Amino acid sequence: MIKAIITDIEGTITRISFVKDVLFPYAAKHLPEFVEKHQHTPEVATQLNTVKQLIANPMASVPEIIDALLNWIKNDEKVTPLKQLQGLIWQAGYENGDFTGHIYPDAFEFLSTQHREGTPLYVYSSGSVKAQQLLFEYSDYGDMRPLFQAYFDTKIGGKKEPKSYHSIIEQLPYSAAEVLFLSDIIEELDAAKTAGLATLQLWRDGQAQSPAHNAITDFNQYMSRNV
Ligand SMILES: CSCCC(=O)C(=O)COP(=O)(O)O
Ligand SMILES: [Mg+2]
């Protein structure tokens, strides 16, 4: 029996094009100035040091670090220091009203219903916890943060690695089999299933499907119990 739900964000409850065509370009546009300006604040300096390690260049200059980060944005690489910096950069965009966090209407209805009926909801996304909370605080439906119990990002591990799901389950008062993981990406669902979680794929944008996981095109199908 499912007692809790962990949801992915992009492609599952949020349109992929909102992330790719709105959030990523905003981050790319503002990242150089943001890094130049905040490079000495501890929160940013820690991430810049991690970038230096990842590009195996301990002496990398700020422009070289910026180039690496912009390249990762271009290739949609889920690299933790980039995701952490993106969260910090998007804050201004949300606060200035440049955009609101996209949530599919059926996803909002589903999450609200589950919350109302007492099913605890958790988030696991490659976007940083800060980025997740901003998206929900400034969502199309207003502040959705009260719907969620806790948030996980790649600080706990990559989403395609079973051990990340083991680590999350260790922090929850449920066994793996009692938790449903929602995602649009087969490799993430495979990793969750290997860790013992129940899985359900959201198949909204023609993503690859796998017979290993139930799939729905929107949450109305889940709510009418067609899965
Ligand atoms: C949390 S909003 C930003 C989304 C993002 O940066 C991202 O990489 C989305 O990855 P997900 O794991 O939610 O598919
Ligand atoms: Mg996703």
Automatic annotation (TrEMBL):
InterPro entries: Enolase-ppase_E1, HAD-like_sf, HAD-SF_hydro_IA, HAD_sf. Pathway: Amino-acid biosynthesis; L-methionine biosynthesis via salvage pathway; L-methionine from S-methyl-5-thio-alpha-D-ribose 1-phosphate: step 4/6; Amino-acid biosynthesis; L-methionine biosynthesis via salvage pathway; L-methionine from S-methyl-5-thio-alpha-D-ribose 1-phosphate: step 3/6. Binds 1 Mg(2+) ion per subunit. It comes from the Bacteria. Its EC number is 3.1.3.77. Transmembrane segments: none annotated. One of its GO terms (molecular function) is 2,3-diketo-5-methylthiopentyl-1-phosphate enolase activity. Bifunctional enzyme that catalyzes the enolization of 2,3-diketo-5-methylthiopentyl-1-phosphate (DK-MTP-1-P) into the intermediate 2-hydroxy-3-keto-5-methylthiopentenyl-1-phosphate (HK-MTPenyl-1-P), which is then dephosphorylated to form the acireductone 1,2-dihydroxy-3-keto-5-methylthiopentene (DHK-MTPene). Belongs to the HAD-like hydrolase superfamily. MasA/MtnC family. This is Enolase-phosphatase E1. The gene is mtnC.
